[in-house]
TrEMBL record:
Root EC class: isomerase
Portion held of the full protein: 1 to 528 of 731
Domain Helicase C-terminal intervals: 214-378
Gene Ontology terms: biological process: DNA recombination; DNA repair; DNA replication; SOS response
This protein's name: DNA helicase RecQ
This protein's GO CC annotations: bacterial nucleoid; cytoplasm; replisome
Organism: Flavobacterium akiainvivens
Length: 528
């Protein structure tokens, strides 16, 4: 259908009561209505749902919406039903339905009443459903939380891998993938797995200019530090994330003893207590929720003023999502995370029982967390680069909103060293991850270097004047500045970018800062 034939603003107003589209919504809606494969990357709260709901409502046929979260599906169905006098306009199809209910769903679809059909990915694999869906007109298939398709996403779900096959059985229907988190690697995986390399891609900015990012070394005094922080934010709402249920209970208790109104929230509490604590937080009967990551899904409290990570998360995706719950209303949002390398080792240990491939991915994601925590460059720039977005640290919105930018370390000229790094990457044939590059620079041997006889090369050990930590800091900054890139297939092997090749020919000034050395400030008895 031609999008121009429909008065989209009128439909928007009619169904949703909004006068204007938000951000990229209108372009996305037009892309879907014109029947093209579409890929949408928008941070949480960006208005993704409307992107497929409006086209579903105006196009002939039924749109299938694949979503992994049953609770959220139900909310969405209720929301759509409230827009219409027709209950059958939206349905969920899953195994909990009775035979009569399934018959009703099928009837509504056949009668052309149902515009949106929500299904969990595992339901879609059931033959009885696919056979039926094959006989009715489908307008498009929307795949929500599309990052679940990628092992490199933070929430890989194997069932998502089958979706493309199943959709093909439904005939030639357009696909729309949507996600709120996707690094360039995950984006590539999604497009590849859904076999839609030429999809219209819409990516909104992930920058949250009102959020202030801060990392503190995690010391023995972490609890009193948190208490001091909360007292400085007296009466304001905040969330404290901990890794374990036990830690959640401990911290909640410590806060209560110190006169701070706080409640725990984790999956070990019964549903009633959880709901009560959540409501207390939403109704502002308590200031602080101490929680595991079980807390926050679908929670929309606009005035959360701080998010504290007592324990560093296992990926920057998680960090971004969890910190993202602060300052939804655009007001103050302080994101404070405590970091200790010991916590990273603990997270690594958790992964030790998993399949090797999964472990490798887990380690690589953790290394990004380490890099983010230890870097002394603009945290916003680092974070946005991770999600494939350029950020201008001079003029970008929110440029001064992190600890590193507010308290800058001394910068030193590193032009020559950058050339050295880039040349070593080039001369080792772009086969190495940063570890081997650093070994080559500092003259350290491992099996890979030996096998390639890199130790016999004239450039081996040319960077001996600086230690490994220094080179690591430099490589992290060179990556963010775009002179090097991580290979998208292996996600680790360093490649020269055209900008890097140009730098070797015509070097320019490159000011670097050393990474933080948190261990120096670490107590002997660090609490982890
Ligand atoms: P996401 O799924 O991307 O997290 P939602 O679809 O839940 O985001 O939308 C976030 C909020 O924005 C919702 O409260 C929604 O009603 C609102 N919203 C969406 N589109 C518009 C619009 N065009 N105008 C005003 N508000 C909108």
């Amino acid at each position: 259908m031609k999008a121009t034939e429909i008065d989209l603003h009128k439909e928007l107003k009619k169904y949703f009561g909004f006068n204007n589209f938000k951000g990229l919504q209108e372009d996305v809606v037009r892309s879907i209505i014109s029947g093209q494969n579409t890929f949408v990357i928008m941070p949480t709260g960006g208005g993704k749902s409307l992107c497929y709901q409006l086209p579903a409502l105006v196009l002939p046929g039924t749109a299938i919406v694949v979503s992994p979260l049953i609770a959220l599906m139900k909310n969405q169905v209720d929301a759509i039903r409230s827009l219409s006098s027709e209950t059958g306009i939206a349905h969920v199809l899953n195994s909990s339905l009775t035979k009569t209910e399934i018959a009703q769903v099928k009837k509504d679809i056949t009668d052309g009443v149902t515009k949106l059909l929500y299904v969990a990915p595992e339901s879609l694999t059931k033959e009885e459903y696919t056979q039926f869906l094959n006989t009715v007109p489908i307008s498009f298939v929307a795949i929500d939380e599309a990052h679940c398709i990628s092992e490199w996403g933070h929430d890989f779900r194997p069932e998502y891998r089958n979706l493309r096959n199943i959709i093909s059985q439904l005939g030639d229907v357009p696909i729309i993938g949507l996600t709120a988190t996707a690094t360039p690697k995950v984006q590539e995986d999604i497009l590849k797995n859904l076999d839609m390399p030429d999809a219209n891609t819409f990516k909104a900015s992930f920058n949250r200019p009102n959020l202030y990012y801060e990392i503190r070394p995690k010391q023995k005094t972490v609890e009193s530090d948190i208490i001091r922080f909360i007292r400085q934010h007296k009466g304001k709402s905040g969330v404290i994330y901990c890794l374990s249920r036990k830690k959640v209970e401990e911290i909640a208790q410590v806060l209560q003893v110190n006169g701070i109104s706080a409640v725990p929230y984790h999956a070990g509490l019964d549903a009633k207590t959880r709901a009560k604590h959540q409501d207390m937080f939403l109704m502002e009967d308590v200031d602080v929720v101490v929680a595991t990551i079980a807390f926050g899904m679908g929670i929309d409290k606009p005035d959360v003023r701080f998010v504290i990570h007592h324990d560093i998360p296992k990926s920057l995706e998680s960090y971004y999502q969890e910190t993202g719950r602060a300052g939804r209303d655009g007001g103050e949002g302080h994101c404070l995370a405590y970091y200790s390398y010991k916590d990273i080792e603990k997270l690594e240990k958790f992964m030790s029982g998993k399949p090797v491939a999964e472990q490798e991915i887990g380690f690589a994601l953790l290394q990004e967390v380490v890099a983010y925590a230890e870097t002394s460059m603009s945290r916003r720039k680092f974070l946005l680069h991770y999600f494939g977005e350029e950020f201008d640290e001079e003029t970008g919105e929110g440029a001064d909103m992190d600890d590193n930018v507010r308290n800058p370390k001394k910068k030193t000229e590193a032009k020559e060293q950058v050339v050295t790094v880039l040349e070593v990457v080039r001369d080792t044939k772009q086969l190495y991850k940063s570890k081997e590059i650093i070994f080559t620079l500092t003259g350290k041997i491992n099996a890979v270097i030996k096998a390639h006889r890199t130790d016999a090369q004239p450039f081996f050990g040319t960077g001996k004047d600086f230690d490994e930590k220094h080179w690591m800091a430099l490589i992290r900054q060179v990556l963010v500045e775009g002179y090097l890139d991580k290979d998208i297939e292996t996600y680790g092997i360093l490649k020269l970018t055209p900008k890097g090749e140009e730098f070797i020919k015509n070097p320019v000034s490159f000011l670097m800062t050393e990474d933080h050395n948190y261990e120096e400030t670490d107590d002997e008895n660090t609490v982890t």
